[in-house]
Amino acid sequence: MTLRIGVIGTGAIGQEHIERLSHKLIGSKVVAVNDINEEGAKAAVARIGIDAKFYADAHELIKSPEVDAVVVTSWGPSHEEFVLAAIDAKKPVFCEKPLAVTAEGCKKIVDAELKHGKRLVQVGFMRPFDNTYRQLKTALDAGEVGQPLLLNCKHFNPEVGDSYTTPMAIVDTFIHELDVLRWLLDDDYVSARVIYPRKTSKASSHLDDPQIVILETAKGIVINTEIFVNCQYGYDI
């Protein structure tokens, strides 16, 4: 059986998913795409070499009887709307992070899925599946390095586009650390503080960069994370 997939959002990340679903995974076929940039979406489909129908309306794509499952890789603030629509259509949906840009939005999605009575939603957090992180998790669980007291982390990107704003450093970037550290430590957060150091000249007027996030967990572990999305030299985590 081939799973027919519709992809909402055909930017860089969306194209990676389309290519993977079309040429690397068995049993999946991208049959529909949607994006606010119709020309760009059609160009991506042509470049990847697939026959997928373009939908100007993402909701029509979700409701289409030709689509079995949905992948959401559009702009972060649109995720909540499309994931809820997929749940309403009773279709499995893979959503790139963030699931929603507010806690209330995430709760609304969880409640909708629970009401449906079946797990339909998966979020694109990949670090717990990475071999290196899994090795670290095994070592921590076995007590090989003793009890964690203090963690220092960083999440650096070479640069970001002009549409990237200050809150996105948390909901689009630091969200990976929020996910994986809770899993690694088998702990939860009880407090959070964000510090804004001197701003880099590489950041736009609507972005405070870098940022430092300090978390404290229920077990008393303190986590210090440096976020610098215009570091220039490369991707470094």
Keywords:
single chain, 237 residues, alpha/beta, Rossmann fold, Dihydrodipicolinate Reductase, domain 2, 6-stranded parallel β-sheet, 4-stranded mixed β-sheet, 7 helices
What does the model show?
This protein has 237 residues and is α/β, with parallel strands linked by helices. It has 2 domains: 3-123, NAD(P)-binding Rossmann-like Domain (Rossmann fold, 3-Layer(aba) Sandwich); 147-228, Dihydrodipicolinate Reductase, domain 2 (2-Layer Sandwich), CATH 3.30.360. Helix content is 35%, strand content 22%. The chain contains 7 helices and 10 strands. The strands form 2 sheets. The protein has a 6-stranded parallel sheet with strand order 3-2-1-4-5-6, sandwiched between helices. A 4-stranded mixed sheet has the order 7-10-9-8, covered by helices on one side. The longest helix has 18 residues, at 168-185. The relative contact order is 0.11. The mean pLDDT is 96.
